TrEMBL record, chains A, B:
Keyword Transcription regulation: no
SUPFAM superfamilies with a match to the protein in the record: Acyl-CoA N-acyltransferases (Nat)
Iron keyword on record: no
Keywords recorded for this protein, A-Z: Acyltransferase, Transferase
This protein's name: N-acetyltransferase domain-containing protein
Organism: Panicum hallii var. hallii
Highest taxon in the source lineage: Eukaryota
GO molecular function, one term: N-acetyltransferase activity
Entry-linked PROSITE patterns: GNAT
Source lineage: Eukaryota, Viridiplantae, Streptophyta, Embryophyta, Tracheophyta
Sequence ranges assigned to domain N-acetyltransferase in this UniProt record: 56-217
């Protein structure tokens, strides 16, 4: 398959780095979230803005990683990554010589870190809590790789690195959600050792259904109402 | 139905208070979590200890409520509750005169707040994050009422109060999980305006399957492995 005219082709060795994101990554994070919404057939729920992402993911001061909302970026580099202890979560060489890769969005997703790096994916995670374990865990809200970079082991690298970090800081479990029709994802997650829990369903209160509870405290505090 | 010999019977007016928990509530929280595990037929997963609950729910300093792991206690009082702005989330009078209530565990669950109060339930919640909204939400990990106090409107009071607080502080949604066989709970939640999402499944990596990812970073960072 020939690469589209505007594609950048990656071949031979490339170096992947999973690193902490910062506010400079927000435009790419915003675009990646939109691509994810398209993939999940959920664009009707997409309401992200760059302003909200910046203020909610990168408040000042930003809490230490994995203690609150944490955004990670996957960059691919044409030259070896020098790990930065303050931001590198994992790095790894990938050999693409057997199967070069054309990325038609490479220019649009140029990494703010420069050096010919391309942003190919992201992770959003935050601590959750298990009362049964009485320990924090890590909830992976999103893990996403742009289409040209899929099926190269990058998703496995990202989830492995996040799980490793969670285990190392004493978290009791790592959890995330999958759509029940996404058999590829389910097979992949089970292959990584995860259980897909059949019995639990997510309940969600949002929009107008949530807003109607505003001011509930005033109503509740005046002593009226019965059993 | 006659009350058991050691029961405390509540009749006439009682006052419910949903309040922030503190470390003095840990023994009751621990017992309530165990009762919840029994109800969910999940005692094999119960590994909570009072020591772990104290260190994980009430670290020093404890973050502001609803910004991290947050424990709330439901106390029932034989006398009117004077709301405390630093800890009361909601309070309400309940009229039990039409249907007095026998609590065989009232002595064991005497509230550390004194005044004849009895602890009847708890909530554990923490912020989660929606990338589609690019806003925090509130995840309710547990909401539990001891058996004698159920079907009196207390669960509704607790969830309404928590949802109200989440909406007031600008959170975009409130979420929790339900077992698909718990039809009573599903009907109750839908009656409160929640959607039960049919398609999402929870994936979980825990125990030995999680521990094997420890040290993954070293393996990943040495440059070996291929696509």
């Amino acid at each position: 398959m020939a690469a589209p005219a505007n594609s950048t082709t990656f071949s031979g060795d490339v170096w992947a780095e999973l690193r902490l994101a910062d506010a400079r990554d927000v435009p790419h994070i915003h675009s990646l979230i939109h691509q994810m919404a398209e993939f999940e057939l959920l664009t009707d729920l997409f309401a992200a803005t760059e302003e909200l992402l910046t203020s909610t993911l990168f408040p000042s001061p930003t809490p230490p990683p994995f203690t609150s909302f944490t955004a990670l970026i996957l960059d691919l580099s044409p030259s070896p990554v020098v790990p930065d202890s303050s931001s590198t979560i994992a790095s790894r060489r990938f050999d693409l010589s057997a199967s070069p890769l054309a990325d038609p969005e490479a220019a649009a997703f140029a990494s703010p870190r420069g050096g010919g790096r391309v942003t190919a994916g992201f992770v959003i995670c935050f601590p959750n809590y298990s009362t049964f374990l009485s320990k924090p865990g890590l909830y992976v809200e999103d893990i996403f790789v742009r289409a040209p970079w899929r099926r190269r082991g990058l998703g496995r690298m990202m989830l492995s690195a996040v799980a490793g970090r969670a285990a190392e800081i004493g978290m009791g479990r790592v959890e995330w959600c999958v759509l029940d029709w996404n058999k590829n994802a389910i097979d992949f997650y089970e292959g990584m050792g995860a259980d897909v829990l059949p019995q639990w369903r997510i309940c969600r209160l949002t929009g107008a259904a949530l807003d109607k509870y505003k001011g509930n405290q005033e109503e509740a505090a005046d002593g009226k109402a019965a059993a």
